[in-house]
TrEMBL record:
InterPro entries: Aminoglycoside_PTrfase, Kinase-like_dom_sf. One of its GO terms (molecular function) is transferase activity. Residues 83-248 form the Aminoglycoside phosphotransferase domain. It holds the Pfam family APH. This is Aminoglycoside phosphotransferase family protein. Its EC number is 2.7.1.-. Transmembrane segments: none annotated. Keywords: Transferase. It comes from Streptomyces ossamyceticus.
């Protein structure tokens, strides 16, 4: 079922979940996300998500169990397991206030880092699948090669991809020691709950799993290395993670030997998606996208195993 097909049913479902007694309501529905890999609709204080069509029920159920067990770190679902709706898995969540993209100075970087540190220190649940970070990076590269293989910016991105170790390309198991990881950390994965006044919580468990905790720090690390995140913001984020006892990086030593490969992988993922999306939209790459592609070009000249730092 396509995103267009599932949306009306999802709207009706979230209204029913928000008002189980069929009480009259004047709240409008709000579509928070409408993509093939996830459609999200809000009604009043309830949010319903239709997960990607290839989502495995057992793995999603395990991820929901983890979120329920750690409500001080992850937003807990309203129901313990997924439901089925027209061939898609549906989950229900309380509404939380997202990060305001119009106020970047107020972005909760320290809070995000602290939540990650706490998540990484939790015991890994038995049977939890691998976190899906490397899989998502690999899918971005497949999307690039499938939609824009002849784009002039594609060669440096693909060269940078080929320099990465097999585990970062989802071609081999991730190295240990394993940790409980979010798998797709960015500022869109945080909300305040209760809305507006509550503490920050991590959301979106689709990529949650066991893996290399440095992956969760890789996107802000990559942005910093590409010149897209100010050095002081990166320093605040890293320091907050270290203060909270996060195990991904040394407490008092250079973090880049650990962060280098994941940051490179996230840079390639971002660049690949930028090329694919700009091609589909028939528009040129913007300055931010160009900066990420330029970083891939620099990275491809210095393989990770030879680099003492991310080539900036």
């Amino acid at each position: 079922m396509t995103t267009t097909d599932v949306l009306p049913a999802l709207r009706a479902t979230v209204r029913g979940a928000a008002h189980p007694q069929a009480a009259p309501c004047s709240h409008p529905d709000a579509v928070l996300a409408e993509r093939e890999d996830g459609t999200v609709v809000r009604h009043a204080d309830t949010v319903a998500k239709a997960h990607a069509p290839d989502t495995e029920p057992a793995r999603l159920a395990l991820r929901l169990t983890v979120a329920t067990a750690h409500p001080d770190v992850l937003l807990a679902p309203l129901r313990p397991g997924p439901s089925a709706l027209h061939g898609r898995l549906i989950t229900f969540w309380p509404y939380g206030t997202p990060v305001d993209p119009e106020n970047p100075d107020d972005a909760p970087w320290e809070e995000a880092a602290t939540l990650l540190a706490h998540l990484h220190r939790r015991q890994v649940p038995q049977g939890l699948p691998p976190m899906r970070g490397p899989v998502k990076a690999a899918r971005a590269v497949v999307r690039l090669t499938g939609t824009a293989p002849d784009h002039p910016a594609a060669p440096p991105v693909l060269r940078a991809w080929r320099t990465l170790p097999a585990w970062a390309r989802a071609e081999a198991p991730m190295p240990g020691p394993p940790a409980l990881c979010h798998g797709d950390l960015h500022l869109g994965q945080l909300v305040r709950h209760p809305a507006s006044t509550g503490p920050w919580r991590l959301i979106d468990v689709d990529d949650l799993g066991v893996g290399v905790p440095a992956w969760d720090l890789a996107r802000p690390a990559a942005w910093y290395a590409c010149g897209l995140l100010p050095p002081d913001v990166w320093a605040r984020f890293l320091a907050a993670y270290q203060r909270a006892g996060g195990p991904a990086v040394p407490a008092d030593d250079d973090p880049w030997p650990v962060l280098d490969v994941p940051a490179r992988a996230l840079t390639v993922q971002t660049a690949a998606l930028a090329i694919a999306k700009s091609t589909a939209a028939g528009r040129p790459l913007d300055d931010v996208e160009g900066a990420v592609i330029d970083a891939c070009d620099r990275m491809s000249a210095v393989p990770p195993e030879l680099a003492s730092d991310f080539p900036k």
